[in-house]
Specification:
Its cofactor is pyridoxal 5'-phosphate. Belongs to the class-III pyridoxal-phosphate-dependent aminotransferase family. This protein folds into 2 domains: about 35-70 and about 350-460, Aspartate Aminotransferase, domain 1 (Alpha-Beta Complex), CATH 3.90.1150; about 75-345, Aspartate Aminotransferase, domain 2, CATH 3.40.640. It is built from 15 helices and 15 strands. It has helices at about 5, 10-20, 60-65, 75-85, 95-105, 120-140, 160-165, 170, 200-215, 240-250, 305-310, 330-345, 350-370, 400-410, 440-460, and strands at about 40-45, 45-50, 55, 115-120, 145-150, 180-185, 220-225, 255-260, 285, 300-305, 375-380, 385-390, 415, 420, 430-435.
């Protein structure tokens, strides 16, 4: 069968997928009797599968990526024109879209200075880790090489990123891991470790980081890597006072603050970046997903000039950042990112994320009033989670299979939502919502109505 004839035969596509495609994050045994899902078209917040069924996508491509929605012809046209003119050149040289997007990006990030291009969030975080390690060897005699990460945070899928990953079930079976990565406690107020709450808990959770630094030895710790809002670990918004204290601690011990914006970046929380919601001044910021809304592969590792200057030393033949990302030289990424950023600005999508995001959170709180199984609602902008419990007093989590059944029920209704799954042992019990930044109140109503019906059917 030719490729052209296969395009006109949906059953052939399904069988080719079943026979040859190894999908992400899914057990393939059921595909022996159930068809794999094939998504063929998208417009706005809606996608259609190969059987013609329409779905409202409440998670922006299932992994929080398509921030400006599907079907943006202006992005596709810009990428096509650029690829025809100059598709790729290795990152040791510059390109026009690479220079233009870097300037536009830095304009949105006061205090930051330099953009290192790569092609995935995992890769961007790897770059940051390598920078920290090289700085340790070049400027600290190799001592300040340890990198702290937080329980329940996730930074990517490579072995080094899993070494910095706070989700034990994502890490299972992939060790041994890279030495020098050390965990600090989570900051989920709903499940505060010591029963604290509010600003007192925020300071206590941050002070727990200092305790780890003192245990490890401040002269051995080079960086602290955190998500501004923990994403896949349960949409954990930091408690009041947390970020202020974290910054004090990093300054006190000369520790680089690395903020992982792979999920929150480019408008998800109602600001260009999640850290900007909290007045944070990072040394390194990594980003991917929403940078080009999935229209092309791109990630960025952005640093201050101070960090960059640590690699400007031609007296040392090994003093520069000795790294390469092959597809960081592809021009499609920054070209798509330029148009993506322009759409966010022209359509006031930061404001829409704030406004409609508040409606999303209010609507989820209204669901919590109707369904005792919802123990906590949290989030910021068009980024929210609802944690499900069997009892609000004990906070015992709902079984992961029941959470999966709710997600499946919503899918059957034509609404795609997310959930923590196979990530945090015993606590894969949070429904996740991250619709595109173009979402309307009507979209939120459809999402929440689907969730309400699913909870009733699955849990009574």
């Amino acid at each position: 069968m030719t490729l052209h004839s296969m395009n006109n035969d949906p059953s052939a596509i399904v069988e080719a997928d079943r026979a040859h495609v190894w999908h992400h994050l899914i057990q393939h045994k059921p595909f022996e009797t159930v068809d794999p899902r094939i998504i063929v078209e998208g417009r706005g917040l809606r996608v259609w599968d190969i059987k013609g069924k329409e779905h409202l996508d409440a998670v922006s491509g299932a992994v929080w990526t398509v921030n400006v929605g599907y079907g943006r012809k202006r992005i596709a046209d810009a990428v096509a024109a650029q690829l025809t003119k100059m598709c790729f050149f290795a990152g040791a040289s510059g390109t026009i879209p690479g220079a233009q997007f870097a300037e536009a990006l830095i304009d949105k990030m006061p205090g930051m200075s330099r953009v290192y291009y790569a092609n995935s969030g995992s890769e961007a975080n790897e770059k940051a880790f390598k920078m920290v390690r090289q700085i340790a060897h070049k400027h600290h005699g190799g001592k300040k090489h340890k990198i702290l990460y937080r329980e329940r945070d996730y930074h990517g899928t490579t072995i080094a990123n899993l070494s910095a990953g706070g989700q034990a079930e994502r890490n299972a079976h992939y060790g041994p891991f890279v030495p020098g990565f050390v965990a600090v406690p989570h900051c989920l107020e709903y499940r505060a470790q010591d029963g604290w709450s509010g600003e007192a808990y925020g300071e206590r959770a941050a002070n727990a980081i200092e305790e780890v630094i003192l245990r490890e030895g401040p002269d051995t710790v080079g960086a602290l890597c955190l998500e501004p809002i923990t994403a896949g670990g349960g949409i954990i918004t930091p408690p009041r006072g947390y970020w202020e204290r974290v910054q004090e601690i990093c300054a006190k011990y000369d520790i680089l603050l690395h903020i992982d914006e792979v999920v929150c970046g480019l408008g998800r929380t109602g600001a260009w970046f999640g850290y900007q919601q909290y007045g944070v001044k990072p040394d390194i910021v990594t980003m991917a997903k929403g940078v080009a809304s999935g229209y092309a592969a791109i990630s960025c590792c952005v640093t201050t000039e101070k960090v960059f200057s640590m690699f400007k030393d031609d007296s040392d033949h090994l003093g520069y950042f000795r790294d390469i990302s092959t597809f960081g030289g592809c021009t499609a990424g920054p070209t798509a990112a330029i148009e993506n950023m322009a759409i966010i600005e022209e359509e006031n999508l930061l404001e829409n994320s704030t406004r409609v995001g508040a409606y999303l959170k209010d609507s989820l709180n209204a669901l919590m009033d109707r369904h005792p199984v919802i123990g906590d609602v949290r989030g910021l902008g068009l980024f929210a989670g609802a944690e499900l419990v069997t009892d609000r007093d004990t906070k015992d989590p709902v079984n992961e299979k029941q959470v999966g059944a709710i997600v499946a029920d919503c899918m059957a209704q034509g609404v795609i939502i997310g959930a923590t799954n196979r990530s945090v042992p015993g606590f894969n019990n949070t429904l996740l919502f991250a619709p595109a930044l173009i979402a309307t109140r009507d979209d939120i109503d459809q999402i929440c109505n689907a969730v309400s019906g699913a909870i009733t059917r699955v849990l009574g």
